[in-house]
Design goal:
The complex is a heterodimer of chains A (114) and B (116).
Chain A lengths: L3 E4 L2 E5 L4 E7 L6 E7 L6 E7 L4 E4 L2 E6 L4 E6 L8 E8 L8 E3 L3 E6 L1
Parallel strand pairs in A: 2-11
Antiparallel strand pairs in A: 1-3, 3-8, 4-5, 4-9, 6-7, 7-8, 9-10, 9-11
Chain B lengths: L3 E4 L2 E4 L5 E7 L6 E7 L6 E7 L5 E2 L8 E7 L2 E6 L8 E10 L2 E6 L3 E5 L1
Parallel strand pairs in B: 2-11
Antiparallel strand pairs in B: 1-3, 3-8, 4-5, 4-9, 5-6, 7-8, 9-10, 9-11
The chains are: A mainly beta (114), B mainly beta (116).
Amino acid sequence: GENVEQHPSTLSVQEGDSAVIKCTYSDSASNYFPWYKQELGKRPQLIIDIRSNVGEKKDQRIAVTLNKTAKHFSLHITETQPEDSAVYFCAASGAWSGYNKLIFGAGTRLAVHP
Amino acid sequence: GAVVSQHPSWVICKSGTSVKIECRSLDFQATTMFWYRQFPKQSLMLMATSNEGSKATYEQGVEKDKFLINHASLTLSTLTVTSAHPEDSSFYICSAGLGTASREQYFGPGTRLTVT
């Protein structure tokens, strides 16, 4: 089955710096890659996603890049702010089962220091 | 936007009892819902895929007789933890999608289960 690896597990940056989180996936049939932000005790919130027919997508301070050949995708956050502090999860999805289920990475705990 | 609710938000039960958790899509119909379990400081682990009108599909290692899933309508899926034990204590989260054409999944707020 699909396996998603995520690095780093923790990331500490100064306010205003950029943060990059990387994920790799194993199944070349995966074709949808969302990123979720989860604050403590709360539900995961979709922040950006990318499909396999696109190499890059940007939404204000957040961008995601996808390299299908290497089977990896990355989340880029620029001009980080303290409110960006949270756990970020990447995920991969494909029609392996016909239901588009998501397989999550282990998560990255991002801390943005003022 | 698509809203998913869960009830209860937290529950404490005694070992050996059963607990039912409800997941509802409030403003859309969800043919498929997903159930996840999340232990502290860990990732979301998919437990099962819940399909309206048919049996759930369980992930490897998840006991279907212990975690009963019922998807009775297009807006409601339930997860029943039967004969709960302390090791079942966890954060249980459901999600729902708008359909195969839309890949986005929307998560419920989660249910924190504590088994004493």
